[in-house]
Design brief:
Helix content is 29%, strand content 17%. It is an alpha/beta fold and 287 residues long.
Length: 287
């Protein structure tokens, strides 16, 4: 995957789909319900002042959306949860996208992905075409009522657990190209690119929650991260992967102490923008 997406990105192309998605060759012909509007479950109240407390704020993001089946597994709606949206399915599989939106609960928050209008690596993407691709992604975000965008780039090492950091030039390109985004996410495993501009944070994942990790160990890992990052507030972004379901993730969060609070992703970003305690950091080496 990493080598293939690096190759396609180098030609200013993006990649769509998972092997277990529904039949796209059929679904692209099925239109959405007449008059249906894509509406996200936003939590930020206009005009309200948001001030973070001295605690650990946790935001949970499950990637691949419907692709790996977590959407239909137990627990969805019980806790604040963010889901990737493969944005091109608005026209490649519009009925499926309508299902995604129409079945959401108030605790389901959608985000745009992945690095472009669909999957690509910005470090491998031709510089002259990157602003245009970010513009393509923004247009889809606007039509799908999305205001958070996620980036992932494994072109440096071309391995799943490789270098996922981004240069300041690339980070600035997303800020410039998506002026309405309230924040950005980065990474897969733990990453270390962080920034904030005009109270809009760019935050990397601090924790990768695999489906195989025992619940007690996962909770202990989060407690240890909170201990290592002892300045408060601490904004702990968790990447929930593979076949984990929301009920399992909730069980892990229920093991955490009273210093932790699971919040909706947009509230998480709003609070982080008001009082960022992370250090600005970028990839310095150019590839």
């Amino acid at each position: 995957e990493e080598e293939w997406v690096t190759l396609t990105s180098s030609y200013a192309l993006t990649v769509d789909g998972l092997h277990n998605l529904p039949n796209t060759s059929f679904l692209y012909r099925v239109p959405p319900t007449p008059g249906f509007k894509f509406k996200n479950n936003h939590n930020i109240q206009p005009g309200k002042k948001y001030s973070p407390e001295s605690k650990v704020y946790v935001a949970l993001v499950q990637t691949d959306g419907l692709g790996l089946g977590a959407w239909v597994k137990p627990g969805r709606g019980s806790i604040p949860y963010a889901w990737e949206v493969s944005m091109k399915f608005q026209y490649m599989s519009p009925a499926m996208m309508e299902y995604f939106y129409s079945q959401s609960t108030p605790n389901d928050f959608f985000i745009g992905c992945l690095s472009g209008s669909s999957y690509m690596y910005p470090k491998a993407f031709p510089k002259k075409w990157l602003p245009k691709e970010i513009e393509n992604a923004k247009r889809l975000m606007d039509s799908l009522d999305l205001n958070v965008f996620e980036i992932m780039d494994y072109s440096a090492d071309k391995t799943e657990a490789g270098n996922n950091e981004l240069t300041k030039e690339i980070v600035d390109a997303y800020y410039a190209g998506m002026p309405d985004a309230i924040g950005f996410l980065n990474g897969y495993f733990a990453s270390h690119t962080f920034a904030v501009k005009d109270k809009r944070p760019f935050i990397s994942y601090d924790y990768y929650l695999s489906a195989e990790k025992p619940e007690a160990e996962a909770a202990a890992d989060l407690e240890e991260l909170a201990s290592l990052n002892n300045e408060r507030p601490y904004f702990l972004l968790v990447h929930v992967r593979e076949y984990s379901d929301v009920a399992r993730v909730k069980s892990i969060c229920d093991r955490l102490g009273t210093a932790f609070e699971v919040v909706p992703l947009d509230i998480f970003l709003k609070l982080a923008g008001e009082k960022p305690t992370f250090k600005e950091r970028y990839l310095e080496t150019k590839y």
